[in-house]
């Protein structure tokens, strides 16, 4: 059986999740569900990043101990994922012993094998990014609190892997997706790669994993957190489990953390002698009012507000449909409502109502027996037959927005077909089995079933209702063949799955 291991970044528990975090997690969930629907063995991992300065500060601000803070804030994430119908297989917190123990193993191992050295470093340090930055980076902007810092620390000899990393990226075009990000990383690697400072003196930061070989220091939060991708799948503790899942198939993240993954994480794996991830994908940002949505800018959209008002599935649909992978996307309520009304209320929702009501009224609520297919029927049946394979290719190429659009285009074609065949008129002449109207309704219901199934990973809960409305039972859940709804199948009564949103201006 083919396996598929997919990860999200670990989210900092310094604040509540917003649409940006929800996006990555929903994306991973949709891809995991698609792969599961293809019969693959899937492991979908997410979790929380609980050490470091950000968490220490957040806890101090609330006047609580950092562990207590993390224990409380992790619940915002788990409950949000539950509300968003995220079906993960693993959830890891970096304060768990199964993680911290393995991080200490890596630290000891690197220390003993001479992958670390101690040195005094003086330079500019970004408090918000928690790393030393170059003058050029500061000039280019984007860092808020930059201070001059002189400190003795431990460094990982990252620079010695520079050539191997460049070679790997060039030889594996799917390693960093999209290619614009690959070029960005190759550009970054044109300059000599420095070594990575992996420690923080306790005098400055207490909240982290203590270095096992020097009690005066804690581990740099990124060195700690990145290792979750292997500690969660039992690296060193269950060989069979680890070998089953590693190397990871797809690691998702926003473009702001591509360097930490493509460079820090990758060179750490090289030093560990482990195979590299097959693909790492950097998506764009959700913008609001022209800037990245972030707590400090005060422009965040809280997913919960939208879910409460419009339901989970339309939110999942919008986020997946409106962001072209790799590019930024602007979130506005107007765009959300327009997309909802056009794709879900008009194209899809009307279709469900039309088909189920016509069958209910004219065929005793049962899928009628079709007669001979004419050219118009055949064209639509052929189209519906082609689409699943087309969509699978788009998903493999991670073009989710295009895949969704392709499904919507099938619904639009089905609407055109219905207009052309006008079964509401045809039933007045003849509504017997094998009549023209019966054939039209048989074809429509079956094409609708194929389209609905293709959208199931995106809108699992509403599609489940729609499938049962169409009389699709569990034994014919799998597959996208035409004709799974056989004559006699009972169709339910639609209660408008996507009521139109009326705007009062
Ligand atoms: N803790 C680190 C990741 C460690 S992975 C071992 C981190 N956490 S984060 O909570 O700040 O961000 C997590 C993810 O959310 C990142 O991929 C980031 O790109 C994404 N987003 C945060 N704001 C975002 C938007 N406005 N839009 C889209 N995604 C954004 O970084």
Describe this structure in words.
Helix content is 50%, strand content 16%. The chain is α/β, with parallel strands linked by helices. The chain has a domain at 340-478: Isoleucyl-tRNA Synthetase, Domain 1. The protein has a 6-stranded parallel β-sheet, with helices on both faces. Strands 5-4-6-8 form a 4-stranded antiparallel β-sheet. It has a 3-stranded antiparallel β-sheet with strand order 9-11-10. Strand 12, helix 11 and strand 13 form a beta-alpha-beta unit. The chain is elongated and about 90 Å long. The mean pLDDT is 93. Bound molecules: 5'-O-[(L-methionyl)-sulphamoyl]adenosine. 5'-O-[(L-methionyl)-sulphamoyl]adenosine binds at residues 9-12, 20-21, 23-24, 49, 225-226, 228, 253-254, 256-257, 285-286, 292-294. 5'-O-[(L-methionyl)-sulphamoyl]adenosine (MSP) binds at residues 9-12, 20-21, 23-24, 49, 225-226, 228, 253-254, 256-257, 285-286, 292-294.
Keywords:
single chain, 505 residues, alpha/beta, Isoleucyl-tRNA Synthetase, Domain 1, six-stranded parallel sheet, four-stranded antiparallel sheet, 19 helices, binds 5'-O-[(L-methionyl)-sulphamoyl]adenosine
Strand order of the largest sheet: 3-2-1-12-13-7
Q: Outline the biggest β-sheet.
A: 6 strands, parallel
What small-molecule ligands were found?
Answer: 5'-O-[(L-methionyl)-sulphamoyl]adenosine
Gross CATH architecture of the domain at 340-478: Orthogonal Bundle
Strand content: 15-25%
Give the low-pLDDT segments: none
Report how far apart the termini are: 54 Å
- How many distinct helices? 19
- CATH level-four homologous superfamily name of the domain at 340-478: Isoleucyl-tRNA Synthetase, Domain 1
């Amino acid at each position: 059986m083919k396996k598929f291991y997919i990860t999200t970044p670990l989210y900092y528990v310094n604040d509540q999740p917003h649409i940006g975090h929800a996006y990555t997690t929903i994306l991973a969930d949709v891809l995991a569900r698609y792969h599961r629907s293809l019969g693959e063995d899937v492991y979908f991992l997410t979790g929380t990043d609980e050490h470091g300065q950000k968490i220490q500060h957040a806890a101090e601000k609330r006047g609580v101990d950092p562990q207590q803070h993390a224990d409380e804030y992790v619940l915002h994430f788990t409950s949000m994922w539950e509300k968003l119908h995220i079906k993960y297989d693993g959830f890891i917190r970096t304060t768990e012993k199964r993680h911290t123990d393995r991080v200490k193993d890596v630290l000891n191992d690197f220390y003993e094998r001479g992958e670390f050295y101690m040195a005094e470093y003086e330079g500019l340090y970004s408090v918000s990014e928690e790393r030393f930055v170059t003058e050029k980076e500061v000039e280019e902007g984007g860092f808020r609190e930059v201070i001059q810092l002189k400190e003795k620390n431990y460094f990982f000899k990252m620079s010695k892997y520079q050539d191997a990393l460049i070679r790997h990226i060039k030889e594996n075009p799917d390693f960093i997706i999209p290619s614009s990000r690959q070029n960005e990383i190759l550009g970054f690697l044109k300059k000599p790669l420095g070594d990575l400072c992996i420690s923080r003196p306790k005098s400055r930061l207490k909240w982290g994993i203590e270095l096992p070989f020097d009690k005066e220091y804690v581990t740099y939060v990124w060195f700690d957190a990145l290792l979750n991708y292997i500690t969660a799948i039992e690296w060193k503790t269950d060989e069979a489990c680890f070998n089953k899942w590693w190397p990871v198939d797809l690691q998702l993240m926003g473009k702001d953390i591509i360097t930490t993954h493509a460079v820090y994480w990758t060179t750490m794996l090289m030093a560990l002698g482990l195979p590299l991830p097959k693909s790492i994908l950097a998506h764009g940002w959700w913008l609001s009012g022209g800037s990245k949505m972030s707590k400090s800018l005060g422009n965040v959209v809280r997913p919960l507000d939208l879910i409460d008002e419009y339901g989970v599935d339309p939110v999942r649909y919008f986020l997946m449909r409106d962001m072209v992978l790799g590019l930024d996307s602007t979130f506005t309520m107007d765009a959300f409502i327009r997309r909802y009304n056009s794709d879900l209320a008009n194209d899809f929702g009307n279709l469900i109502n039309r088909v189920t009501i016509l069958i209910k009224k004219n065929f005793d609520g049962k899928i009628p027996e079709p007669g001979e297919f004419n050219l118009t029927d055949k064209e639509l049946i052929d189209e519906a037959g082609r689409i699943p394979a087309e969509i699978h290719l788009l998903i493999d190429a991670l073009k989710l927005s295009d895949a969704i659009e392709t499904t919507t285009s099938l619904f639009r074609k089905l609407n055109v077909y219905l207009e052309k065949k006008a079964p509401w008129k045809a039933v007045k002449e003849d509504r017997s089995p094998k009549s023209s109207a019966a054939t039209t309704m048989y074809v429509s219901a079956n094409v609708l079933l194929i389209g609905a199934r293709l959208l199931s990973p995106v809108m699992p809960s509403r599609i489940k209702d729609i499938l049962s409305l169409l009389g699709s039972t569990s034994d014919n859940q799998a597959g996208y063949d035409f004709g799974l709804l056989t004559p006699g199948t009972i169709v339910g009564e639609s209660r408008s799955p996507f009521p139109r949103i009326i705007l009062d201006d």
